[in-house]
């Protein structure tokens, strides 16, 4: 008859082997995950870079040239629209029909554009943590909360909607940057 201690040692050895096998598998999955995350971030960066390249050109040079060639009435209209352009750290205006997203600062426009793209592709709302990752930022609490603050402000001003707590989408009548009203 085998001893109780011997039986326990056999079971312990079997359990240790199983733990070692699972650790090896977990290490393999972690390595695959790291490679997949790196590739995903590279695609996010690539899409971001393409967006920068295809985005609007810096209009400061064009503005100076246009201003010299415009009649006095045109200059007044141009000055009026220039004052509507967003400055860094500017306030978020309440959305109304005909108000273009260019009145928002670039950070707010980026949030709006991301959610407009998802709306256009018939994808659902995003959490701030998901947006943080999409923007290529570390999903640390400070970055997520900064995005949440901006998203909540856009909701309060009618640019975004928050149908479920913490999940943001484009407001019903808003078309996003470059989409008209």
Task: Characterize the structure shown.
A hairpin with a 2-residue loop joins strand 2 and strand 3 (167-170). A 3-stranded antiparallel sheet has the order 1-3-2. The longest helix is centred in the first third of the chain and has 51 residues, at 4-54. Helix 5 (128-134) crosses helix 6 (141-156). It contains 6 helices and 3 strands; from the N terminus they run H-H-H-H-E-H-H-E-E. The chain is mostly helical. It has helices spanning 4-54, 60-69, 72-84, 106-120, 128-134, 141-156, and strands at 126-127, 160-164, 167-170. The chain is 62% helix and 6% strand.
Task: Tell me briefly what this model is.
It is built from six helices and three strands.
Please supply descriptive tags for the structure shown above:
about 180 residues; mainly alpha; about 5% strand; elongated
How does the SSE layout of this entry go?
Blueprint: H1 4-54, H2 60-69, H3 72-84, H4 106-120, E1 126-127, H5 128-134, H6 141-156, E2 160-164, E3 167-170
Antiparallel strand pairs: 1-3, 2-3
N-to-C span: 85 Å
Shape: elongated
Biggest sheet descriptor: 3 strands, antiparallel
- Determine the number of helices (DSSP H or I, runs of at least 4 residues): 6
Order of SSEs, N→C?
Answer: HHHHEHHEE
The largest beta-sheet arranges its strands as 1-3-2
Detail the poorly predicted runs: 59-88
Quote the beta fraction.
Answer: 5-15%
Binned, the helix content reads: 55-70%
The Cα radius of gyration reads 26 Å
